[in-house]
Amino acid sequence: xxxxxxxxxxxxxxxxxxxxxxxxxxxxxxxxxxxxxxxxxxxxxxxxxxxxxxxxxxxxxxxxxxxxxxxxxxxxxxxxxxxxxxxxxxxxxxxxxxxxxxxxxxxxxxxxxxxxxxxxxxxxxxxxxxxxxxxxxxxxxxxxxxxxxxxxxxxxxxxxxxxxxxxxxxxxxxxxxxxxxxxxxxxxxxxxxxxxxxxxxxxxxxxxxxxxxxxxxxxxxxxxxxxxxxxxxxxxxxxxxxxxxxxxxxxxxxxxxxxxxxxxxxxxxxxxxxxxxxxxxxxxxxxxxxxxxxxxxxxxxxxxxxx
Length: 307
Prior knowledge:
six-stranded mixed β-sheet, single chain, 2 domains, alpha/beta, D-Maltodextrin-Binding Protein, domain 2, about 35% helix
């Protein structure tokens, strides 16, 4: 069903952007809309995701049936698409990224997207079709990692914690250039995040996020190791719902984001992750502070690199 929503910045923008924006989106981004609604219906809340799953669809169904806010889940091919689509007004929110990824996007694009509700932290695991333990890796082995800056750094840190990689210096966001190859057991092989599953066929190990692992039907409990979601340093990897800054106080969007912590949605997420995800209900101040701190860190890092 479709209901009339209160006048809000997102609805006023939709009248200007919906025809050109959504037409371009459907032609160029490779996205598909789940739910079959009218693409020009201003009363539908559109939430962008990558690798849509049953948890996404369940939350959308509860929002539609019980809150009266019709929600469509919009699927994108890769991580580079949902934030620009949100910025351009083609989406009302997106639900695919963690704080660190959002900070990197904002800094790189001089944007101010913001997270209005947290969902979970999911450990980033190392898989192998060759070995049964991290101790089995041999000098010279290759491990595939995502090539985007934030997930690349997180992947390298997983390997550092596992004792497979040694850094030249203790840096929180390491790059391949920070790896001391002579002191390390493995070398890293950066690939597009969507290719980390396929890379398992040609390397000895691969760091694969939960979305792509689930699509490939990998058992998360078969991972050799993963980062620790309970570590305080893991907070920047809390996932959540992201909106434009001017929509951060939109009550409809806040209510939809809060549905993640409904018992039914949590149960679905737990089943989907096979018990590996950790629900995280952070308040807005925690999220805002973590986002601002990470953005400042990235800006300082860029300035140091340019100096």
